[in-house]
Automatic annotation (TrEMBL):
Signal peptide positions on this chain: 1-21
Superkingdom: Bacteria
InterPro entries, sorted: Solute-binding_3/MltF_N (IPR001638)
UniProt entry keywords in alphabetical sequence: Signal
Limits of the Solute-binding protein family 3/N-terminal domain: 27-239
Protein name, as recorded: Amino acid ABC transporter substrate-binding protein (PAAT family)
Record PANTHER family: PERIPLASMIC SUBSTRATE BINDING PROTEIN FAMILY 3, SOLUTE-BINDING PROTEIN FAMILY 3_N-TERMINAL DOMAIN-CONTAINING PROTEIN
Residues in coiled coil: none
């Protein structure tokens, strides 16, 4: 019996060692103005913060921008994966190692200003309408947890705004800063859309986080790097350069 226990323990720690030895990878999504690839260059306020943290920690790894569901799955399943910008929720609390806060955010429901048939004053009112959501992101998960059934998930948030503009859906659940940024990029006027409801509990700070089973030395270096960035005032400078304010942590 002890022989089998020893073999099992050896196998377990061998696999654990292999997981920890995997190279660091960084995953994110295209979510301007926070993180996105512009002409092949990693850009955005969160990207600048993470890049500065990596430099302070003495670490280096390319950033992979891909659909959120794919990045999220990698961060859940592969050790030594750094993911950003991610909202911290009770459901996610024990699924990641939370490095720290990097940028403020808020989330809302938006409609076309010309669509007078859509009337939303409370979250319950929104249940009557078709809502575009971004697959597996925090707003999608939140609305599912609230029992919403008329959801249309897509693998890129921009598709929701285009569908809303064409009247194919009634509402979009979106990040406030992203929505404001992207409608201008798409050639719309801010007056073309209207925020009808702030999503309760979906605001605060976005985080950078590591996957479970990651190298403790890497986790410590990143945590200390972010702390140093904030202590020096550089973190606040980056936020202010993008028109954002650092909130008390």
């Amino acid at each position: 019996m002890c022989k089998f226990c020893s073999i099992f323990a050896l196998l377990f720690f061998t696999l654990l060692g292999q997981a920890v030895s995997q190279p660091l990878q960084i995953v994110s999504e295209d979510l301007p103005p926070y993180n996105y690839s512009k002409s092949g260059i990693a850009s955005g306020v969160s990207t600048e913060v993470v890049t500065a943290v990596m430099e302070a920690a003495g670490l280096s790894a390319p950033i992979r921008f891909q659909p959120w569901a794919r990045s999220y799955h990698l961060a859940l399943s592969r050790p030594n994966t750094l993911i950003f910008s991610i909202a911290r929720t009770p459901e996610r609390e024990n699924q990641f190692i939370w490095i720290g806060q990097i940028a403020p955010y808020g989330s809302s429901l938006f409609k076309r200003s010309s669509d007078r048939s859509v009337q939303v004053d409370t979250l319950d009112d929104a249940r009557a309408y078709q809502i575009g959501v971004y697959l597996s992101d925090v707003k999608h998960q939140y609305l599912l947890s609230e029992g919403f059934t008329r959801l249309e998930p897509v693998d890129h948030d921009l598709l929701n705004i285009r569908k809303l503009a064409k009247g194919r859906i009634d509402l979009v659940a979106s990040d406030d800063a992203f929505f404001s940024y992207i409608i201008r990029q798409e050639g719309f006027e801010p007056a073309d859309f209207e925020r009808v409801l702030k999503l309760p509990g979906l605001g605060g700070q976005l985080y950078m986080a590591m996957s479970l089973g990651s190298d403790p030395d890497v986790v410590q270096a990143l945590t200390q790097g972010l702390d140093a960035l904030k202590a020096s005032g550089r973190h606040r400078e980056i936020l202010m350069s993008h028109g954002l304010n650092a909130e008390d942590e």
